[in-house]
Amino acid sequence: MGQESQPQTLQQQLKQKSEEAGKRFPPEMLKTMRDAVQTVRDTGIEKSAKQVSDAAIDAELTGWNGKTVKLSDAWSEGPVVLMWYRGGWCPYCNLQLRAMQKELKAIEGAGAKLIVLTPELPEKAKETAEANDVDFVALYDKENGLARKYGLVFALPDPILPLYRDRLKLAEVNGSDAMELPLSATYVIDTKGKIRYAFLDADYTQRAEPADVVAAVKQVAGEKK
């Protein structure tokens, strides 16, 4: 019998999606997007955002199910995975959401909670969850309020504004005219409210590998025993 093929890692899926985009879109558009990523990176946001060993910032946010979550209440009970996604219009975000769903049992089995945040309106976030068949409820980070406190928010560079404003209708999706987005950051926070793992990348095609997140969670959870 042949050997069963291993499921793709999230990084492999993201790379494949990026390669598909490279075939679909004209070279000038691809260059514009790459240049925009570099513009964001050049702001230094990856280094100025909250990092490992920094204190996490508390907040009280509400999900599309109407339930409110206070972050400090969550991390006082066990480690928390705090993850931002940009919106359901982003194919890379959807891949990440589905990948994290597959690791949800491993995260919760280690005594941790996955808390997902997004700037998209609650009704849009509900649609995103249903479209990706995920069980977790995204909290509404209205106008990127909490992401801003974590240092994750950047203004969309002028060359790509028309794409987000006119084609993706970002203002309608987020309920805000601000042409800005958060980095798709992932943090692991311990029970003292300290950041123990951080994934920060200006490149929207790059995301935290779920296996790395689970390993970080297990390490933090193991220290309590």
UniProtKB/TrEMBL annotation:
Protein purpose: Thiol-specific peroxidase that catalyzes the reduction of hydrogen peroxide and organic hydroperoxides to water and alcohols, respectively. Plays a role in cell protection against oxidative stress by detoxifying peroxides and as sensor of hydrogen peroxide-mediated signaling events.
Biased composition (Low complexity): 1-15
GO cellular component term, pick one: cytoplasm
EC number: 1.11.1.24
Domain of life: Bacteria
Pfam families given in the database record: AhpC-TSA (PF00578)
UniProt similarity note: Belongs to the peroxiredoxin family. BCP/PrxQ subfamily.
GO MF terms held by the record: thioredoxin peroxidase activity
Coiled-coil regions listed in the entry: none
Keywords: Antioxidant, Disulfide bond, Oxidoreductase, Peroxidase, Redox-active center
Record field: catalytic activity: a hydroperoxide + [thioredoxin]-dithiol = an alcohol + [thioredoxin]-disulfide + H2O
Organism: Blastopirellula sediminis
Official protein name in the record: thioredoxin-dependent peroxiredoxin
The Thioredoxin domain, residue ranges: 50-222
Cross-referenced Gene3D superfamilies: Glutaredoxin
Region (Disordered), start-end ranges: 1-28
